[in-house]
Specification:
By secondary structure, the chain is α/β, with parallel strands linked by helices. It folds into two domains: 82 residues, no CATH class; 70 residues, no CATH class. The chain is built from four helices and ten strands. The longest helix has 16 residues. The two termini are 32 Å apart. The relative contact order is 0.18. The N terminus is likely disordered.
Length: 162
């Protein structure tokens, strides 16, 4: 968990130090990744689309303090990102509504900046940090067989990738 937390803070440092104010934070998690909370919303690092300028504090709970507060979900630690009061976050259905994605495409697998998101129910976004949502067959994949696939995906394009 120590390396995961270090990667998180390193990513946040570089993102907040950059000239861009709207970014997505994308750090690979592992099976032993900590519980990630943005305000009261549960998410994963790869599933967040945030405006880093709206993050007011980061709290890390480890060991017994994480377990006593969050039970078995906190066994690998907890990272709490706290946002400015006026910040609002939405889940995938609201993103698809805002970008007028048709009912026929709503059950497609989802990517953020062409990276497949395994647990779509944990996608959490600040709508202002999203540039566009498209239906595409193009995505990044480590598997050669996926490169020629005609499978369609919903791809959420963040403002920093546009």
């Amino acid at each position: 968990m120590k390396s995961f937390i270090s990667a998180l803070f390193l990513s946040l440092f570089f993102l907040t130090s950059s000239a861009q104010s709207k970014v997505s934070i994308s750090v690979s998690g592992k099976d032993d990744a900590p519980l990630i909370l943005v305000d009261t919303f549960r998410t994963e690092m790869k599933s967040m689309i945030l405006n880093v300028a709206n993050i007011t504090s980061i709290n890390v709970l480890k060991d017994s303090s994480a377990i006593s507060r969050y039970g078995k979900e906190g066994k690998n630690g907890v990272v709490q990102l706290n946002s400015a009061i006026a910040t609002s976050y939405v889940r995938l259905d609201a993103i698809l509504d805002a970008f007028h994605i048709s009912a026929e495409h709503r059950n497609l697998r989802v990517c953020i900046d062409k990276i497949l998101i395994e647990r779509r129910q944990l996608i959490l976004a600040d709508l202002e940090a999203i540039a566009a949502v498209e239906i595409t067959t193009d995505r990044l994949s480590p598997y050669l067989e996926d490169l020629n696939s005609t499978e369609k995906f919903i791809n959420i394009i963040t403002r920093d990738k546009k």
